[in-house]
Amino acid sequence: MNIGILGAGQLGRMLALAGYPLGCSFRFFDPTPPSAVSAVAPHMCEHYSNTEALDSFIKGLDAVTYEFENVPVEAAEYVASRVALQPGIEALRVAQDRFAERECFRKLGIPVVDSIELPAVQANESHKGIVSKFGVPCVLKARRLGYDGKGQAVVRSEDKILEALSTLKGQDVIVERLVEFTRELSIIAVRGRSGDPKFYPLIENVHHQGILRTSRCPANRVGESLQQEAEDFATRVLAHFSYVGVLTIELFEVNGKLVANEMAPRVHNSGHFSIEGSETSQFENHIRAVMGMPLGSTRPKGSSLMVNLIGVRPDAKKLLAMPQVHFHWYGKAPREGRKVGHVTAVFKGSEERDSKAQEVLACARGT
Fold first, then answer.
1. How far, in Å, are 191, 207, 312 from residue 329 at the CA level?
2. Is the pLDDT of residue 367 over 70?
3. What is the 3-state secondary structure (H, E, C) of 213-241?
4. pTM over 0.90, yes/no
5. For the chain, how far is it from start to end, CA to CA, in angstroms?
């Protein structure tokens, strides 16, 4: 089966690596060179508005998917009119707009953080008054194109509102309550063409400056009710979009209950552990879903730790000297704030994982 992927980052690279053993071939479309996929598959480096290039890209493909949610909807619609595209257009459209995403969650009865909309925000007294009335502390978020902490500003006092607004000048913004959460979690689900979903265990995530640093799966202190609550949220979203593929919902745990933060209609950074830590990785299951094949088991093989490598390349020899550790390098030049690889470690149980986590973290960070 010939599969095209819109986007050419590390998620696409891992999708291809998972799909080759299934007999798939891949090609990528994205305007940004050089790419993380160049070593594993052909990369057509053209702008998304170039319909002639898109026609050439999709020729001979059996299906197309995408590896990040900021693919222009117009390009995705053009592709979908000519070849099967999964997940579908509407999930992509909603995930690109934070306000539409919140409204979708509300419509489906999924709890979300209180928020309001500020169209075409400007740093003036009028908008300052709206934010003041909403209340601080709060978070300003660009409605579109925000990721890894970009397009966001935290406001902790009224005298900082204009400063925060100025960083998002000219953009549509949502103003959101600053949530006092216990921890951040994510649920990764996959749904095939048959409509029956599968779920990975809840994952506990730690972010720094908006970028995911570590994930642990299964998360500690998760009872059956919390896992079921997360699966229920994901099931509603999957059914709403007649979804095919992997879907991730990022969540806050607040007073023992879950509040939805964002959704990602794609494979997700917090699911990297699944390559070694699950019976079937999120990447293989996404390809299986897109191909119309039966989904694989999402059962964990143990207790996993994932550490993102941000901006630096650590000593791989030291990491690989640890018997549980697996090293993944994306072939990208290191620079500040850039995800250039990740490390996973799989242990027999959570106690062993948590006792050895600091050793793995220190080595991954080169300290």
1. 29, 20, 11
2. no
3. EEEEECCCCCCHHHHHHHHHHHHHHHHHC
4. yes
5. 44
